[in-house]
Amino acid sequence: MFTLQRYIVRELIKTFALTAFGLTLVFSLCGGVFNMIQVDVLTALQLWRILAHIVPVSVTLTLPVSALFSAAIVFGRLSADNEFNACRSSGINIHWLLAPAMSMAVLTAAFTFTFSNFIIPNVVEGLEEIVREDPQRAVTQTLRARGHGEFFGKYVIYADSFRDAIGDQPDTKLVELNGAAFIELEHSELARFGTTPKVLIQFETPSDGSEPRVIAHMSDVRAYDEKRKQFYELGDQALGPAIIPQRFTRKVKWLDLPELLHYRDQPWALPRVEQRLQRLREHVQRLFFYHDLVAKLTGPDGIYRLGTPQRGYDITAAAAPVDRKSGRPRLDKPVVHQRWDKYRRTFSGESGTLAVEQGFTDNQPHVFITLDKDVVRRDDLAGVETTLRSIELDSVPIPQAIVQRAAAIRTSDLLSDKDLGLSPEIDSARVSLTKGMWGERRRIDAEIHSRGAFSASVLVLVVLGAALGIIYRGGQMLIAFVISFVPGLFVTIMIIMGRQLAEKDNTALIGLLVIWSGIGLVALADAVVVGRYLRR
Description:
Layout: H1 2-30, H2 44-80, H3 83-89, H4 99-132, H5 135-146, E1 148-151, E2 155-166, E3 172-186, E4 189-204, E5 213-225, E6 230-243, H6 257-265, H7 271-297, E7 304-307, E8 311-316, E9 330-332, E10 335-340, E11 343-348, E12 351-358, E13 365-379, E14 385-392, E15 396-397, H8 400-407, H9 411-414, H10 424-471, H11 477-502, H12 508-533
Antiparallel strand pairs: 1-2, 2-3, 3-4, 4-5, 5-6, 7-8, 8-10, 9-12, 10-11, 11-13, 12-13, 13-14, 13-15
């Protein structure tokens, strides 16, 4: 028995190794795995290093197929040569000859489970580090290949020419862009665009191992605000510092098993959910500001002070009607006293609005005051009056008390059904955020079960492939391929279909059952084939 099993093991290893090697090359170089990388912004050395990281991802996909194929062709060839008939004539239980195939299945399943849950997520992070470790070269390659680059998540910068520069510090690298133009996006919509003769992009890679950062220094900036139809001349302007963004989004499928279990218990900590939660808090900030504005304008003093004593506004209004849906007020007959360094001006108009939005020069929320309908501007020092059709005043940061008040709301309260007394628009955003969060948790459940089912499927598929190879004498390549392809395809379809169902709210439990039902049916087929037909 030991001699026979050693012989089978040798044939299995030889066929398994050749099949795995060929399939891995196909998946790595010609398949969709390599398409994960944006190859047009990488150097040849980076591509070779990335290929070394892609191979483990490909191996995880090819080993189960290789194990199934090698079991079908080896046991089929033994059956075609009547070696099993000879064993049975000698009184050997041929079921024991399936032990090598079962051992290979167990090892392959353990390998697949370990790689898919622990190794591949780290490999993806390694791919990201290869690109992020030399951001200067990545930027120049991007500009050379595309003519533009994306920075800070919302800026797209074009340049007539560019060159590398030398920084003062060893951990600092510079890229100088000449004849640059840029556009700024807000929620994927055009907000502002402008030009600058020179942009100096500074990359800092701290020696302490912290995240690399980028700062863009722009000179003589001229920009046009598309939303407000206003032109700016800002002179020198700095953007950042900001963490260099990742090319690989941390999706659920790239999380390792401990992270999946962590986010399953705390789905609100997922990066995608955190971003939506931050936008919701910004919305709450705006609403709190509007509430505070209306309360003080309609209070005993009837005045709202905004900004600092050196740069700020004193605002009064005859009335401040509030939109019931958004909670945003509109000012009737507003009067704004401006304190702006050495200037003292008074603006009055028929109507006006105050909006809280991200500032142009930084990422802090600012208050933008707009007056329209025959605005009268009076210089308090010179006593000169000017009539304007409308005007937007210089913005000031939102009061820190409002920011702190919004930050004090607990995350659990924002994600609960508790009535916080906010606007219907925010309540709708809370409901949408909660549904999205539980949707992410269902994706996590589906990912955990699909990974486990994919690994466990090797156990039943290899045994079935070996048994069918014996029955149909599948020593020929085509027969072995069909024997290994059909049950493997069936299990894969069941896992994919179950995963899609598990990600939906009304079919989550059914989806998990479907994921494992394919393996159950193949296990039942194993029992029937091995216990009944293989004896014949």
